[in-house]
Amino acid sequence: MHIHRGAAAVAATTLAGLALAACGAGNTGDTDAGILVGTTDKVVSIDPAGSYDNGSTQVQTQAYQYLMNFPAGSTDLTPDAAESCDFETPTEYVCTVKDGLTFANGNELTASDVAFSFQRIVDINDPNGPASLLGAMKKVEARDDSTVVFTLAAPNDVTFPQVLATSAGPIVDEETYPADKVLDDDAAAVKAQGFSGPYTIGSYKKNELAEFTRNKDYDGAFGTPKNDAVTLTYYADANNLKLDVQNGKIDVAWRSLTPTDIASLEKADGVTVHKGDGGELRYIVFNLKTMPGDDDAQKTAIRQAVASSIDRDELSEQVYKGTYTPAYSAVPEGQTAATEPFKELYGEKPDVDKAKAFLDEAGVATPVELNLQYNPDHYGSNSDQEYAMVKRQLEATKLFTVDLQSTEWTTYSEERVKDAYPMYQLGWFPDFPDPDNYLTPFFAPNNFLQSHYEDTTTTKLLDTERTESDATARAKTLGEVQERVAQQVPILPLLTGSQVAVSGDDVEGVDDTLDASFKFRFASLSKG
Question: Which InterPro entries does the UniProt entry name for this protein (predicted)?
Answer without folding.
Answer: Peptide/Ni-bd (IPR030678), SBP_5 (IPR039424), SBP_5_dom (IPR000914)
